[in-house]
Amino acid sequence: MPDSRISASSPPPPRTGTHAPAHAAERAYHYTKERILRGDLAGGELVSEGQIGGMLGVSRTPVHEAFLRLDAEHLLTLSSRKGAVVAPMSPQESRDVLEMREAIESASARRLLARGRPPKEALAALRFALDHQRDAVAADDIDAFVEADDEFHSVVVRWSGNTLAAHFFAAIRDRQQRLRYQLLSIRSEHLTAALEDHRELAERVAAADPEGYAAVLHQHVARHQGGL
Amino acid sequence: MPDSRISASSPPPPRTGTHAPAHAAERAYHYTKERILRGDLAGGELVSEGQIGGMLGVSRTPVHEAFLRLDAEHLLTLSSRKGAVVAPMSPQESRDVLEMREAIESASARRLLARGRPPKEALAALRFALDHQRDAVAADDIDAFVEADDEFHSVVVRWSGNTLAAHFFAAIRDRQQRLRYQLLSIRSEHLTAALEDHRELAERVAAADPEGYAAVLHQHVARHQGGL
DNA sequence: GTGGGACATCTTGCATGCAAGCAGGTACGC
DNA sequence: GCGTACCTGCTTGCATGCAAGATGTCCCAC
Q: Is A162–B92 a contact, with Cβ atoms under 8 angstroms apart?
């Protein structure tokens, strides 16, 4: 149905708003991924390349590329000559994600602190993220808090120097974002407690105490199971 | 990497052997990946789609798809209108890989054993892998041992039921395979010691002792740092 | 020798055309 | 009513053509 000729009649493709990725494939990737993560495309739903391409005013080719990448991330399951199915969230998704997150972050803390005190810059980055979280709590801005929360945990992984860990952690973050959109269970009351946990974690980093970090993180993850 | 077009139904996911690559894109993917892992394509080397396509007698399109997947796995770095660069192995690659492997496998053991004794099938799978390793040691067959070694460690991850972990573990396995090809440092003498470690690990699983498993695994990984 | 522009040639990005697989509906024979 | 063949419209897989960015080179002015 929607050949790209339709795009000739319809003005420029709907602006996604946030940023303008130069390439069509990139645009299709981010657009589709966002829709999956936000839950606009529900798990189990069937999407076709032409459908997305029509919406963005591009041909099937770049959309096909986007689908391949999403398939590699297990957000989409390609089915030859039938279409692509949005990966359903397993009932254990939350548990799986939090478990991996804890495992990787703990390992990162151990590596970061293996040679004693961490670099000043890492500590500064932690403080920076903490400040953002404090401001977000004060403003009762959940989105900002989530962003700063992600940043905080990423700091440890990034500064561990393990690029593989950073790669995995990014994938985990996507999935967690998807969970957040689905559960919508973040409450303001949780933010203060989470911020306290983060302060504690930062202290363990400053004290070069990886096992303490792991212990606090375990509590932190357990406490916010599925919530943050 | 299993064919992601086939949606896995239940844990444990089906084992995928080396299957005939029906599709051109699949063929290009496996061919290129193998060449990278084996070191035929050295880190930093520039490869083009047309080059691979010419070798396989397919057009650029399926090769392009293969490159995209390899880029997502960080085995290839695409550079717009210049070509694709084979990802160089960082000097810390070995450490990164082993660290993640230990982190994920330990977490998997904890989850598998969180509710006491593991399922009979899991124990049987461990014994099966152990038998293979014993035979490989007897035959001094390093390739067979490596395969059985991978299988052994995968069993725990697979039976933990965390599909995300299984996904990561598969990616790690690829990178470890690449390291093996580069280092070529596996010696027959190591096999016996590794087999002993595995027996010990299997015992910890049978005893539903995740912390013991983690401890033995830590020793095991440290001992064979970069070697196996 | 050195700087710079034109050009040839490499590369990919994307649109498109065609073939073929898959699914749902329908008419037909019984 | 029921099974089967077929038809029609969906989907993707892949080859191909064209446009355009990146790079190297050659030549010429100075």
A: yes
Among B75, B93, B66, B72, CA closest to B182:
B93
Long-range contacts of B56-63 (CB under 8 A, 24+ apart): B56/B24, B56/B27, B56/B28, B56/B31, B58/B24, B58/B27, B58/B28, B59/B24, B61/B25, B62/B23, B62/B24, B62/B25, B62/B27, B62/B28, B63/B25, B63/B28, B63/B32
Could you tell me which residue, B189 or B52, shows the higher pLDDT?
B52
Task: Determine the longest span between alpha carbons in chain A, in angstroms.
Answer: 63
Residues with CB under 7 A from strand D: A 1, 47-51, 60-61, 64, 67, 78, 80-84; B 23-26, 53, 58-62, 65, 80-82
Q: Residue B219 in contact with residue B197, Cβ under 8 Å? A: yes
Which of B147, B153, B148 minimizes the C-alpha distance to B166? B153
Mean pLDDT of B95-123: 95
**Residue B4 in this model has a pLDDT that exceeds 60:** no
> Which residue has 């139904």 as its token pair?
B9
- To the nearest whole Å, the CA of B175 is away from the closest chain A CA by 10
Q: Give φ, ψ of A207 to 5 degrees.
A: -85, 5
Q: What is the pLDDT of residues B145-164, one digit of tens each?
A: 999 999 999 999 999 999 99
Query: CA of B206: how far to CAs of A65, B24, B110, B192, B202, in Å?
Result: 45, 44, 13, 21, 6
pLDDT in tens, A74-83: 999 999 899 9
**Structure confidence by residue, pLDDT tens digits, A122-157:** 999 999 999 999 999 999 999 999 999 999 999 999
